[in-house]
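Dissemination and training. As part of the outreach component of the grant, students in the summer workshop were shown how a complex can be specified as a set of sequence lines and then modelled as a single object. The example used during the hands-on session is reproduced here so that future cohorts can follow it. Participants entered these lines:
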Amino acid sequence: MANSKFILSILVNNESGVLTRVSSLFSRRGFNIDSLSVGETENPLISRITISAKGDEYTKEQLEKQLMKLHDVITVELMDMENTVTRELMMVKVKFKKGELTELMSAISVFRAKVIDLASNTATLELTGQSSKVDAFIEFLAPYGIIELCRTGVTAIGRGDYILKSGN
Amino acid sequence: MKMTGAQIVIETLIEQGVDTVFGYPGGSVTNLYDELYRYQDKIHHYLTCHEQGAAHSADAYARVTGKPGVCIATSGPGATNLVTGIATAYLDSSPVVAITGNVTQPLIGKDSFQEVDIAGVTLPITKHNYIVKDIEKLADTIREAFSIAISGRPGPVLVDIPKDIQLASTEFVSKPRVTKAAGAPFSEESIKAAIELIKDSERPYIYAGGGVVTSEATKELLEFAEKVDAPIGLSMMGLTAVPGSNPRNLGMTGMHGKYAASKAMSDSDLIIAVGTRFSDRATGSKPEFIRGKRFLHIDIDPAEIGKNIPACVSVIGDVREVLSSLNALLPKMSRGEWAEEIEAIKRSPKSQPKPSDGGITPKSVIEAVRRYTKDDDVVATDVGQHQMWTCLFYDFGNPRTFVTSGGLGTMGFGMGAAMGSCIGRGGKRTVLFTGDGSFHMNMNELATAVTNRLPLVIVLMNNGVLGMVRQWQTLFFEKRYSNTVLNRKTDFVKLAEAFGAEGLRVSEPGDLAPALEKAFSSDGPVLIDVKINCDEMVLPFIPPGGTINDIILEG
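and obtained this result:
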């Protein structure tokens, strides 16, 4: 069976230890996580976890069912990617030499990134977008010399009426 | 009424209908034990020799009564000693509520004396667990723990209570006992699809598991089997789902299952799995197992559908309710040809037991014991050859009368399990089949059985070896008996006597009847040391990853 990328959005009780329960379920059942992001929702009692992973139909189905068995999990949604907007935020620190800044600035503008800190020979940039765009920007910056890089992992939300229900 | 946390724990247990707990005191539960002292007329605490014994007892108590079993341990080593017991209960879906004390909250995370993150440790082996950090939430947390343990597919829940929570005070208001949470109703379409699948089948086979025992669906299952006109094979956890005497019952399937049960399963075109999860020990080679077959899977746990075996149709729900719905709609079917085939399989020489040579064999011992037990008497086992022999040769009677570690395969389970079973049945005589390997693991609990005068008949099949592993070494490792020949000098009769129990020895076939006569008329624990041949194997044996064609019938 073919492996494909998928995104799971999970609403959980906003309590300590819940993230461990969710992430350890992946390792315990032999599934890998590509990225994970988590934060409180509009309801402070509920957090939303977005997990990006790869797997076949069996993996997806098992993950959904096993996650639903966790007591603190309220909703599990295997996101319908055609109806979902995904974003990721990256902060990256790159080196530049004299004379390179202009070229760098124009690339920043093309990628719609932002300069959040500038020193004499380094620039710290912020970029938000789909993971593929983030990857492309990293590839572009690599020749300059990336000093530090961090990304939040994918977060995802459905379009329009595609809403995760947290209530009964 | 204002109460301390320790008192609230006990009051909540009483409110939940608990009158029996198993445990061991220690520094982080002294306040809890002080309350147990005050409430001893309402809750009987059984002090074991080791927390593992308490966990196994609570598990067995739950299995024979259907009510949650409760065990209590202190922080650190007390809590970690429960771990094997909790894992055993988890793998066999047994509703256990484990209560542990922990160090006071300011000391948590400081590697304090007897501190361990037991919630972290038991995360993968509990349905859910809690660390109570707020006295106001203590009572409701315990209530929720009971609700989770008994609802849906049952399982263990751990509640870790730091000492300062046990000491703090708050108002306690009693609430009614929790009941099982209602599951989502199964769909009419799934019932219709199931019926179509059954009608479409020529050779249906019912494969029943522990879910039938848990949901107490024996009557419904037998009615279903009559309507569908199908034979029944059982998983190890399902051995008491149907009486051994029922002609539809072919016995246990799988690695050490009966020939007829495995052969009929292999020849069927539809497997109707009821409350079972297709463990690797039950299926052997998965691709071969599923070849040419369709599957109807009925289970309360949606995650079991498609986990080990792809199901054509599934019905998710309590198996008794599902079977009742199916029975109401199914016509009475008749499958003469398939029934004849089954009869032929049953008559096949491969199905016949080896003729006895008159010596002491596991089969003769188990059958002799059965002559002393009634259908409602509980039989517990440890893990190994004696366990499989019990599965093969014991003629099971009523549901909830067989207590064994199926999923985890826990050697050392037996003594705690036999005690918990006996206590759960109000002190009724209980049989434990064990081996010299398993018994050595937790024989300390003999002291608990003696203290409480539990009428246990402990039948120890003594072959001086770790027989199950040795059997593999015989068959697959050219008889290189690495660390399976015990060379121990333990005198089990003296050992039993040293603990204050009665010890009897059976060395000749003629010793067996008088020993059993004596054991079954005693009112305390009796250990019978039965010498058996170390080359005796568990047969049939389908090697791991094999099929019915690989079955080994003779040693």
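Chain A touches chain B at residues 17, 20-21, 24, 28, 58, 61-62, 65-66, 68-72 (CB under 8 Å). Students were then asked to discuss how this feature might be tested experimentally.
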